[in-house]
Amino acid sequence: MPTFAFSGRTRTGEVITGERMADSIDAAMALLRRDQIRVTKIDKVKAKQKEKEGLLAFKKGVPSKSLAVFTRQFSVMIDAGLPLVQCLDILGRQEPHKMFAGTILKVREDVEAGASLADAMRKYPRAFDDLYTNMVAAGEAGGILDNILKRLATYIEKNVKLKSQVKSAMIYPVAVLVIAALVVAVILWKVIPTFAALFAGLGAELPMPTRVVIWISNQFIFIMPMLGVGIVVGGFALRQYYKTYRGRRVMDGSLLRLPILGLILRKIAVARFCRTLSTLLASGVPILDGLEITAKTSGNAIVEDAIMTTRSSIERGETVSGPLQATKVFPPMVTQMIGVGEATGALDMMLSKIADFYEEEVDTAVAGLLTLLEPVMISILGVIVGGIVISMYLPIFSLIEKLS
């Protein structure tokens, strides 16, 4: 269906511009007259221009926080009885994220032209993923769109909280490492050459640790560019390797096997799986579709393979808990509780309880990791800086002994 850009005036004389989808220019004019808009100019929007605008609009995607706020406000408006098009129009005009605001207004135009909300949102996958559109479609079909949007908002908010916990766990060690690197760089660049010149003038015999530090200081100007290039090239190579089928599974599997961090990542994966599948099942999405969507949003290739293996087993008539347990990715407690949920016919509620439990476990684990990292990182920084300082003072001690 072609799109027509128009400009015109409302009944109050306000100048208005926008776009409408219609079969023809006459149909677009009729739609605008129905909305009591007197058209002064209308033209067909070229397909290439429309496609270019869409690519620009969805290049970076929509921030999760913006999507959560939009969904929460949308659910409140629908619950209050406001018409769907009016809700989208209000939310689109007040959205601070310009690209997302444009997306919402385009969805409004599609809905106004006769498309369902889910179909209109499917055109913009960077803003509304499969999980979102499938739940909206289930809400429209069941006449419970306001409840579905509330569940979606809760799910997105919990997902944002989970991501922020992981980021907060990484901020402290990264900050300490960066500070340590800067301190060591300043010492090697400015302080060590001064000591080296002093020792050369005194003709002192330098011990091995001092000679090694002075050599590193002398090579510092050449080492740093090579180290920087090495980090960039290594990071790019790892990124390209991760994009391959084998590379993603090797790296994700290695992360899950790490001593402390691997346990936290596993708990995060379990919490996300249970929360996503619970939200989908409670919204009326079929379990096979729910598992496929959950696998895509798992964030880990090993977990994704385990979920898809389970889905294949369910297609053959098996239960959910048995195949999940056979993958050995999910803890026994999780599979046992899922089995109880299946037996009682309350799988969505049981998954929600598991998600709540593991989200609390993630909170505790992240707090414990931060508590453990603090003394470890300070000790590492102390050993590095202290080692350099001691190596520089060793020749001074030797000279004092000779003078005494």
Structure notes:
This protein has 404 residues and is mainly alpha-helical. The chain has three domains: 3-45, Ubiquitin-like (UB roll) (Roll), CATH 3.10.20; 62-155, Type II secretion system (T2SS), domain F (Receptor-associated Protein, Up-down Bundle); 177-404, Receptor-associated Protein, CATH 1.20.81. The protein has helices spanning 25-34, 47-57, 64-79, 84-94, 98-112, 117-122, 130-142, 145-202, 208-218, 220-243, 245-256, 261-282, 287-296, 301-315, 321-327, 332-344, 347-403; strands at residues 3-9, 15-21, 38-44. The chain has a three-stranded antiparallel sheet with strand order 2-1-3. Mean pLDDT is 81; it is low at 48-59.
Q: How are the SSEs ordered, and which strands pair?
A:
Layout: E1 3-9, E2 15-21, H1 25-34, E3 38-44, H2 47-57, H3 64-79, H4 84-94, H5 98-112, H6 117-122, H7 130-142, H8 145-202, H9 208-218, H10 220-243, H11 245-256, H12 261-282, H13 287-296, H14 301-315, H15 321-327, H16 332-344, H17 347-403
Antiparallel strand pairs: 1-2, 1-3
